[in-house]
Write a structure and sequence with these properties.
Number of strands: 11
Structural class: alpha/beta
Distance between the termini: 46 Å
Helix content: 25-40%
Largest sheet: 7 strands, mixed
CATH architecture of the largest domain: 3-Layer(aba) Sandwich
Number of helices: 14
Oligomer: single chain
CATH topology of the largest domain: Aminopeptidase
Strand order of the largest sheet: 1-2-4-3-5-11-6
Bound molecules: zinc ion
């Protein structure tokens, strides 16, 4: 079905693969994605989309719209890379690129290229049928910065009937995996410096406060729901001189729970521990909520529609060399014999599995509270490839990953075309969404708070 429109993705494959490769060649970390944002928006503008840049005070965010009126569908694109992940592309061994720090360990170059392709195919459909509109949302800083949270808080998805998205993975399957709500909170302690040998009684240690806070949080684990998670990293230990009472120290916490209300409640308990640590050490603590994501809302009607679209599109077949490459990559990963027997899972679309508990979080969850949202996983990488690894950076430049990226674009576009033609599906998705979001969207970011954007390089 819809071959005529999906064919646009094949006829312009060089354009989409070129964008993906260019992003891979110029990896940029969260909120620094100027090259990516410029290239993608220029490509969209040259092809008849109306582009708006710099939404939610984020210079590298954008929307690109084609068509007008309802139904109005959204597609997400991410394009940030990871620091410290420099790696040679299409290589089967760990080797960084001299002079480069970032790398596309989450495959967001493919994510952007595939979503761009999907937008082009939906545009072809709208041109011919005159139906509705489509917006590609350029979403910066998925890796930690949570660009979509600001966009969700500012109502950018409010007018959208459904959002259809995807992400590089190791298999083809509609996402059923949940994502936990999270709060990212920075605790900064300030004490009094003194000579630790000569005048310890005058000192009040901020580092002691951080240590006591962490002890308290570790005791809290026994008295919280099993589904919750608490992680911390000490960002500032106060200095490197043991003979000094440290007057400043900082610790960053991620507090996760199955929904935003529980994440907020658990964060308030962690806040009390921080205040207790400050009281014990006679230091001062300031508590700063940096970011936080909602839990993911899944919509069965959209999952079924996306599953049907995925089953309908012929899958690309890897060449012998591509299979051999995937098998070589697998040799660098600890795997079960069963997984090693099958380097790629690209030849099939798996039926969605019932959701199992999962400890991760994503800012797509905030979009899912604003409008019915579905995500697909697509087999761009060899079976067993860990996310955020040198192996995933290497494979995100790979010939077969790009063919799967084009397939992902067709799956996203095919889902939207089905929804365009079957308004009852869109209405059913809205009813499911209304039922599941009765509690109301609770954004972790207060109104008016701005993302922490580094200066343009
Ligand atoms: Zn990632
Ligand atoms: Zn990602």
């Amino acid at each position: 079905m819809y071959e005529k429109y999906l064919g646009v993705i094949d006829s312009r494959a060089d354009l989409f693969c070129g964008v993906s490769d260019a992003l891979w060649d110029h990896p940029e970390a969260a909120y620094k994605e100027y090259f990516a944002s410029d290239l993608i928006t220029k490509t969209l503008e040259e092809n008849g989309f109306t582009v708006v840049r710099g939404l939610s005070d984020i210079p590298t965010s954008f929307t690109a719209t084609y068509g007008s009126g309802k139904p109005h569908f959204g597609i997400l694109a991410e394009y940030d890379a990871l620091e410290g992940m420099s790696q040679v592309g299409e290589s089967t061994k760990r080797e960084s690129i001299p002079g480069k720090d970032c790398g596309h360990g989450c495959g967001h170059n493919l994510f952007a290229g595939g979503s761009l392709a999907a937008a082009f195919a939906v545009k072809a459909y709208i041109e011919e049928t005159g139906r509705g509109s489509v917006t590609l949302f350029g979403c910066p800083a998925e890796e930690g910065g949570g660009g979509k949270i600001y966009m969700a808080r500012d109502g950018l998805f409010a007018d959208i009937d459904s959002v259809v998205s995807w992400h590089p993975e190791r298999m083809n399957m509609v996402r059923t995996r949940p994502a936990l709500a999270t709060r990212h909170v920075e605790y900064s302690f300030v004490g009094t410096a003194s000579h630790a040998g000569a005048n310890p009684q005058a000192g009040r240690s901020a580092l002691d406060a951080v240590e006591l806070m962490n002890v308290g949080a570790n005791f809290l684990r026994e008295h919280m729901d099993l589904s919750c998670r608490i992680h911390y990293a000490i960002l500032d230990a106060g200095g490197d001189a043991p003979n000094m009472v440290q007057s400043h120290a900082k610790v960053l916490y991620y507090v996760r729970a199955t929904d935003s209300v529980s994440a907020q409640a658990l964060t308030e308990r962690v806040n009390k521990i921080a205040q207790g640590a400050a009281l014990m050490t006679e230091t001062e603590v300031s508590i700063n909520v940096l970011s936080g994501y909602a839990n993911l809302i899944t919509i069965p009607t959209l999952q079924a529609t996306a599953n049907e679209a995925m089953h309908d599109i012929p899958l690309p077949v890897p060449t012998e060399e591509e299979l051999a490459f995937a098998a070589e990559i697998q040799k660098t990963i600890e795997l079960s014999e069963e997984d090693r027997a099958k380097p790629m899972l690209a030849d099939t679309v798996l039926d969605p599995v019932p959701p199992k508990p999962h400890g991760g979080s994503t800012d797509t969850a905030d979009v899912s509270w604003c409008t019915p949202t579905v995500q697909m996983h697509v087999a761009n990488w060899a079976v067993g490839t860990p996310g955020h690894s040198w192996q995933s950076v290497s494979q995100s430049k790979w010939s077969f990953a790009k063919r799967m990226m084009l397939w992902a674009g067709k799956a996203v576009a095919g889902t939207i075309m089905r929804l365009m033609e079957n308004p009852e599906l869109v209405e059913a998705a809205k009813r499911e969404h209304a039922e599941k979001t009765k509690a109301g969207y609770m954004c972790a970011i207060p109104a008016g708070a701005k993302p922490n954007i580094p200066p343009r390089p």
